[in-house]
């Protein structure tokens, strides 16, 4: 059989495409020399040399192969990132990958203390024999995985450790006891990721200011909006006016000065605000809430820019405005 394959591999490949057979490792190697992609598509169980070849070609190839544990260990020693492409990896394989590249522990959804210890450069066996407290090691582990703070009791969650945790992983704030969520810890967390505000109980105004200065859209989730918080949000992003509960004249004016299209999100615009927008862009008449318009406002806008008449949505109002405007100019 092997001799035939060497003589005419193409015929053998054509045969294998329509006939499933249990090919030997030797046969797989022969076919791989001619058409490696075919072997990857046809077989999930390959000898070690072909698995390594598949890995070198593309790590994603490993997703479709059954990789024995001994081969998996050799693979992650050569390329630690391959651990994320190997199916059914156990802790030993993960630890071997972390030993080669400690930084990849951040990408594991689930991790063990031994994995953390290896990432920190510690020997798990030696550590387990140690009877002394190791705050230095605790800080080291938190620098690697901030969410490790969830394993600390309230008593042991010092501000220094909490700061280290949220600096490494802002979402670790959700594992910090409320009594330990100090102003400094909260500010540090939201500076890195404003979205973690949802895990903070009763944030201060300053914390909110940091949040909206980075992501103004999060104003929509803030219940206790202060004038300063709204001002910062609208200054950063004029469209944030849509999330402002108390749309004061000055806030609305600031938003349309920066972006006149924000008029569409102002719930009850004054005639002055409408005219200011139309003066900058007459097409915005179509974005103004019809309930906020009357003939006097439309005529005022028409005198600023007569093109605004064409964008009045209400047909009756459009007709009346056009009629009155025509009388004035003729």
pLDDT < 50 runs, ≥5 residues: 1-7
What does the overall shape look like? Answer: flat
Average pLDDT for all residues: 87
**What series of H and E elements makes up the topology?**
HHHHHHHHHHHHHHHHHH
Q: Structural class, from helix and strand content?
A: mainly alpha
Q: What features would you highlight for this structure?
A:
330 residues; mainly alpha; disordered N terminus
Report what the structure shows.
The chain has helices spanning 2-7, 9-18, 25-34, 36-42, 48-57, 69-78, 91-100, 113-120, 124-129, 135-144, 159-168, 183-192, 205-214, 227-236, 249-258, 271-280, 295-304, 315-329. It is mostly helical and 330 residues long. The model is unreliable at 1-7 (pLDDT under 50). It starts with a helix and ends with a helix. Among the domains are: 204-259, no CATH class; 268-330, no CATH class.
Show the helix and strand layout.
Elements: H1 2-7, H2 9-18, H3 25-34, H4 36-42, H5 48-57, H6 69-78, H7 91-100, H8 113-120, H9 124-129, H10 135-144, H11 159-168, H12 183-192, H13 205-214, H14 227-236, H15 249-258, H16 271-280, H17 295-304, H18 315-329
């Amino acid at each position: 059989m092997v001799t035939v394959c060497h003589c005419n591999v193409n015929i053998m490949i054509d045969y294998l495409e329509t006939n499933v057979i249990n090919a030997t490792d030797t046969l797989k190697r022969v076919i791989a020399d001619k058409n490696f992609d075919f072997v990857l598509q046809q077989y999930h169980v390959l000898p070690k040399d072909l698995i390594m070849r598949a890995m070198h070609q593309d790590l994603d190839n490993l997703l479709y192969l059954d990789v024995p544990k001994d081969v998996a260990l050799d693979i992650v020693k050569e390329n630690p990132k391959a651990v994320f492409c190997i199916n059914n990896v156990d802790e030993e394989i993960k630890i071997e990958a972390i030993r080669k590249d400690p930084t990849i522990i951040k990408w594991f959804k689930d991790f063990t203390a031994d994995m953390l210890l290896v990432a920190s450069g510690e020997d798990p066996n030696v550590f387990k024999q140690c009877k002394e407290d190791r705050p230095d090691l605790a800080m080291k582990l938190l620098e690697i995985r901030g969410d490790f703070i969830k394993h600390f009791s309230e008593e042991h969650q010092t501000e220094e450790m909490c700061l280290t945790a949220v600096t490494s992983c802002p979402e670790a704030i959700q594992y910090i006891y409320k009594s330990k969520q100090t102003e400094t810890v909260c500010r540090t967390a939201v500076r890195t990721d404003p979205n973690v505000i949802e895990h903070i109980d009763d944030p201060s105004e300053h914390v909110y200011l940091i949040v909206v200065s980075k992501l103004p859209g999060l104003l929509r989730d803030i219940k206790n909006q202060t004038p300063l918080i709204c001002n910062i949000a609208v200054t950063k992003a004029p469209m944030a006016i849509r999330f402002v509960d108390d749309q004061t004249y000055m806030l609305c004016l600031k938003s349309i000065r920066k972006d006149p299209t924000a008029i569409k999100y102002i719930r009850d615009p004054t005639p002055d605000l409408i005219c200011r927008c139309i003066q900058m862009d007459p097409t915005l008449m179509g974005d103004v809430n019809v309930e906020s318009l009357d003939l006097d406002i439309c005529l005022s806008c028409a005198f600023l820019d007569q093109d605004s008449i064409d964008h009045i949505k209400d047909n009756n109002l459009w007709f009346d405005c056009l009629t009155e405007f025509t009388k004035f100019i003729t």
